[in-house]
Amino acid sequence: MSAASATVTTASPAATRAVAARLAEAARPGDVVLLVGGLGAGKTTFAQGFAAALGVKGPVTSPTFTLVRQYPCRLGQLLHADVYRLEHLAEVEDLGLGELVEEDGVALVEWGDAAAPVLGAVACTVRITRPGDAGTSGGTAAGPAAGPPADIDIDTDTDPRTGARTEPRTVTVEGERRYVEAVA
Length: 184
Fold this sequence. Notes:
By secondary structure, the chain is an alpha/beta fold. Helix content is 25%, strand content 23%. It is globular, with a radius of gyration of 15 Å.
């Protein structure tokens, strides 16, 4: 059976967070959600909306250098991982994300497409693209070398001169029907 999918376009970081919040309502303890997209695509913005809908208090930031951040939430805990800097699947496997969420929580894994083979069952994959993006992280756990223009703030996806969002985003959700129906 093929996975279901739905695609929406967001015009602002707030709209991306709102889509993520709808997706979070479908989350169950034990779920692993992969976030896929290039540098600056909006993976952390999406994670912020998902976390807020699960009741996470305080800021949610990219775990690029810490690899995994844990937040208490209504499902137990939210694990927010970023495997961009990991070069080998064995390093991803050593994080034990699947085991950490089996009974008490949900995991969001940025750059998760490269790590999928060692993550176990994945409830859904969220692909976030900008106009002209290929839609993947480049196929390795280390991710691509290219990034957004130097003058764009990749944490807020805004032009620092104007405060405006740089481009719309296409968010495609693939996987278990409950997730797809949440954003359709």
